[in-house]
From TrEMBL, chain A:
A GO term for molecular function: transcription coregulator activity
Leader sequence segment: none
Protein name: Bushy growth protein
Keywords: Nucleus, Transcription, Transcription regulation
Keyword rRNA-binding: no
Cellular compartments annotated: Nucleus
Annotated GO CC locations: nuclear chromosome; nucleus
Organism taxonomic ancestry: Eukaryota, Viridiplantae, Streptophyta, Embryophyta, Tracheophyta
GO biological process: chromatin remodeling; regulation of transcription by RNA polymerase II
Automatic annotation (TrEMBL), chain B:
Compositionally biased region (Basic and acidic residues): 213-227
Protein name: SWI/SNF complex subunit SWI3A
Keyword list, A-Z: Coiled coil, DNA-binding, Nucleus, Transcription, Transcription regulation
RNA-binding found in the keyword field: no
Coiled coil: 456-483
SWIRM domain: residues covered: 16-113
Membrane-crossing segments per the record: none
Residue intervals of the Myb-like domain: 237-281
SANT domain span: 234-285
Region named Disordered: 207-227
Cytoplasm recorded as keyword: no
Source lineage: Eukaryota, Viridiplantae, Streptophyta, Embryophyta, Tracheophyta
Length: 263, 544
């Protein structure tokens, strides 16, 4: 049924997060003088810039971090906001796309793994509500889990949104090509668990069924795991090691590029 | 039992309570209320949202809830079963909940997760379709349900007996275990076979078909005992290797006499021994062969030559298992084991005839391997055995003589054999029982060695042949490849020569054209036409 697409190619619109609230996911990962600070949250891009500094100061005060963090945090947030703003003037082409989103994160002692489908043309979608329902239904005690889920969803949506900007497509390859590569930007298809593209028309047309096969239910079922403190410690240590190694590799790669890239 | 599909009897309908405000709800229709509250499914704004899709979602959610109306169904439980944007799914869910079509009057419990206990879900749990569905779920009427939401029970594979089942230790307090399929909870009840083993009803049917031999060679002694202890307790300690060994020895020695066997294996009862033997890989085989030869003994009562004739003429396939297919052209080999059997039968009636069945196996192997190989193997085996043990030599010397006779001549040595037999008889009767026993053992070992030798020779030949074949194929492949390359080279050479040819032609044409040009110019000069500028000179000539 490829000829008939109601509302298929919507008119291109200005770039924005495909959610009800146009909030940006911000991720901080700073390592200064051996001290590591990681955080992820949602930011309203319409907030005045002064808010960034206030937030940075407050965070450093609350968490008793060395004061050098203030500028670093503020800078990081501003960089990410600037990037977001740079997309804002451009047009993006959202076609009807139902993509699988994955959650794979660890918040303190809780490990969450989940995958589900998200319609990115649904501009009324609400990751926060999804996260709230998630935590309520699964009775998750840790209050930090919900926001983490919401941020993760937003990040994936942000990635998809930026990929659908026509002008930015060429510059995609370099930096962001590594992550988010599994989001396929084809119209009317989405990837099921095995990576097979499933024809939307077939599923939602007259002959398909939108009820998933029973044997696939377990794939889309959330998995919540509570770790013991030792396991958490071990995982933290491993992550730190990985992050350090990655940083070293990145530095090496950058120096390599600057050395051998032509003017 | 899968729920009945649409349009079946009304008797299955159960009553569910929904608020009166939701009385507009119909299974087979979509009401305006729904269209109003969930417009995104009805405005044609996307292919993934249409009335059919909405109806499927709705029906599925409501049916899933009604499987257990006492429990509050959560969105997270149900979203995994539906394909579509979770935002819209949530909207449908909330709509149904708001109108009381689901979770009506159910108090939200503190912990409402279907999958797991408190908070932890084990990651590597079994997939959903292997979970045990509680039997108390009554059959619900699901009118209008899409047939894709099928039966409640997942597909359950039959249990397989594995190595661990056979050789592993019996766990105590395990309940009745079927002797054949290992099924512990057979619904059809258990029956006891003639061998005194408990089998579930399914297997008993299969067993009576497949094991023709056990039914026809039934040993009725054991029946009564088994039935008396039919529902015996199963608190057994595990079978150690020592006990298993004792069991096997006892079986070889006493055959079917379970009382003696149980006596031999002191720590286990009769029933245990029987059951254990069944469990072992060749346990039934041993039993069957024992029973088989009991039947055989009834037939072998005549004189040897008559017996031999009858044996040669009709290979005893009815008596032995079908896997020993003795061909008529190997009858000289048949004679060897068959002849030995009457010797043994008459002289060693009290001993077990497992050896006989092994001899039959030797015959089988020999037919597979070929006459010459088998004889060579037999000779080699006996020689080896004799060199190993001197007392065997004496025993075998007579046999060997007899064997050689048998092998080289066909049916003409009946008399000779008769004499041999009588000699053997005398010889045997004077021998102490232990010696006879050892003779039997030697014969058994000889037979086994023969069989092994024959098979090994055959295997080596096969392996050699395979290797040669592989080499041949490799060579042919390489040859083909080389030929291909040769063809290509030739082709390219041809092309090259063609190109060169054309090149020379081209050069000639060029030259001739140049000459013409020059001539034209000369004529032009002679005619007095002024020289024109150089940039009109054609390019190819300037770059020459």
């Amino acid at each position: 049924m490829r000829s008939f697409h109601p509302g298929a190619s919507k008119a291109p619109m200005k770039f924005r997060m495909p959610t009800a609230e146009n909030f940006v996911p911000i991720r901080l990962d700073l390592d200064i003088d051996g001290q590591r600070f990681k955080d992820a949250f949602t930011w309203n891009p319409n907030d005045p810039d002064s808010e960034v500094n206030n937030f940075a100061k407050r965070t450093v005060k609350d968490l008793k971090l060395p004061p050098t963090f203030v500028t670093q945090i503020a800078q990081s947030i501003q960089t990410q906001l600037a990037e977001f703003h740079s997309y804002e003037g451009q047009e993006m082409h959202i076609k009807e796309k139902i993509v699988p989103l994955k959650i794979d994160l660890r918040v303190n002692n809780t490990v969450i793994r989940d995958q589900f489908l998200w319609d990115i043309s649904n501009l009324e979608s609400d990751p926060e509500e999804f996260a709230r329902t998630f935590c309520k239904d699964l009775d998750i005690g840790d209050p930090e889990v919900g926001p983490a889920i919401a941020v993760s969803i937003r990040e994936q949506l942000y990635e998809i949104a930026t990929q659908s900007i026509s002008s930015a497509r060429e510059t995609r390859v370099g930096k962001k090509g590594r992550r988010g590569a599994d989001i396929v930007a084809n119209s009317f298809v989405f990837c099921s668990k095995a990576g097979n593209t499933v024809d939307l028309g077939k599923l939602f047309g007259s002959k398909g069924s939108v009820i998933r096969k029973r044997k696939e239910w377990y794939l889309y079922e959330p998995i919540v795991d509570i770790l013991s403190n030792e396991e958490v410690g071990a995982l933290d240590a491993r992550e730190e090691l990985n992050a350090r190694l990655k940083r070293k590799l990145d530095e090496k790669e950058e120096s390599f590029q600057t050395r051998y890239s032509h003017g | 039992m899968p729920p009945s599909s649409e349009g079946s009897d009304l008797a299955d309908r159960e009553l569910y309570s929904i608020p009166s405000s939701a009385s507009w709800f119909r299974w087979d229709d979509i009401d305006d209320t729904e269209r109003r509250c969930l417009p995104e499914f009805f405005d044609g704004s996307s292919t993934s949202r249409n009335p059919r899709v909405y109806k499927e979602y709705r029906d599925f959610i409501i049916s899933k809830y009604r499987e257990d109306p006492t429990k509050c169904i959560t969105f997270t439980e149900i979203r995994k079963s539906m394909i579509g944007d979770v935002g819209y799914l949530h909207k449908v869910f909330l709509f149904l909940e708001k109108w009381g079509l689901i979770n009506f009057g159910v108090k939200v419990p503190k912990i409402s997760v279907e999958d797991a206990g408190p908070k932890v879900v084990v990651e590597e749990g079994p997939p959903a379709d292997v979970q045990v569905v509680p039997a108390c779920i009554p059959q619900r009427k699901l009118v209008g349900m899409a047939s894709s939401v099928g039966g409640e029970n997942g597909f359950k594979l039959p249990p397989l007996t594995s190595y661990s089942d056979v050789f592993g230790d019996w766990l105590p307090k395990r309940g009745l275990v079927c002797g054949i399929c290992g099924d512990q909870s057979a619904a059809g009840g258990y029956e006891s076979l003639q061998d005194g083993v408990m089998v579930c009803s399914k297997c008993s049917k299969n067993n009576s078909q497949a094991d023709g031999r056990t039914t026809e060679d039934s040993n009725h002694q054991v029946d009564d005992d088994a039935k008396a202890e039919g529902s015996a307790n199963n608190v057994i300690s595990a079978w150690t290797d020592a006990e298993t060994l004792l069991l096997l020895e006892a079986v070889l020695k006493h055959g079917d006499d379970w009382a003696l066997i149980a006596q031999h294996v002191r720590t286990k009862s009769k029933l245990d021994c029987i059951a254990r033997l069944i469990q072992l890989p060749f346990g039934e085989h041993i039993l069957g062969s024992i029973n088989g030869t009991c039947a055989n003994s009834n037939l072998i009562t005549q004189a040897t030559d008559v017996k031999k004739q009858s044996l040669i003429n009709e290979p005893p396939q009815e008596l032995i298992k079908t896997d020993l297919h003795i061909q008529t052209d190997e009858k000289d080999l048949v004679e060897e084991p068959m002849a030995e059997r009457p010797l043994k039968r008459r002289c060693l009636p009290s001993f077990v005839h497992v050896a006989d069945s092994l001899i039959k196996q030797v015959a089988g192997f020999s037919t597979v391997a070929g006459a010459q190989i088998a004889t060579a193997a037999a000779d080699a085996a006996i020689v080896a055995l004799c060199s190993e043990n001197i007392s065997a030599r004496k025993h075998f010397s007579i046999n060997k003589y007899g064997e050689n006779d048998l092998l080289y001549t066909n049916n003409d040595h009946n008399s000779g054999l008769k004499i041999e037999d009588q000699d053997m008889e005398l010889h045997k009767q004077t021998v102490v029982s232990e010696k006879s026993l050892s003779a039997t053992a030697f014969q058994v070992r000889a037979a086994i060695a023969t069989a092994l030798g024959a098979v090994a020779a055959r295997a080596k030949l096969l392996a050699d042949q395979e290797e040669r074949e592989i080499e041949l194929l490799m060579a042919s492949i390489i040859e083909v490849q080389l030929r291909k390359i040769q063809c290509k080279i030739k082709h390219f050479e041809e092309l090259e020569s063609m190109m060169e040819h054309e090149y020379t032609l081209l050069q000639k044409v060029k030259e001739s054209t140049l000459e013409e040009w020059v001539t034209v110019l000369q004529q032009a000069f002679q005619a007095g036409i002024p020289r024109w500028s150089d940039d009109e000179l054609p390019k190819p000539f300037t770059t020459m």
